[in-house]
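With this grant's support, we have settled on a layout for protein records. An illustrative entry appears below exactly as we store it:
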Amino acid sequence: MATIREVDAVKMFMGKLAHGADLLEEITKICVDQDICLGRIEALGAVKKARLGYYNQQDHEYHFFDLNQTLEITNLIGNISTKDGAPIVHAHITLSDEDGHAYGGHLAPGTIVFACEIAIQVLDGPNFVRGLDQETGLPLWKMNE
């Protein structure tokens, strides 16, 4: 059975990230600096290189891979919640190369910004706190607490 909670949109931040910054670290820093603990993220742009993850459901581990090439961000979508009392960004990204081949996965540190425009929608509602889900091995939202 799905577990959902109602939230309200409060405000939106829009801007561009710094050239050469780590994409995930830069987004997380904005959330910490602006005290954003609940929200959603989307972005477009390009990266100099990328590090993405894929979650192996059998061994309950992330496997990471590097794309050491320039790529377009065709889509980045994610959410902001809290883990261990601090904002945490969970984002997935789709990238394309010069031939239109697409790569996608869990955004990991090591993805370096060439140019990136971002929108962060701040939400208000109950706390969405991440904790270990025994069934999947993932740090999922603890909705019943």
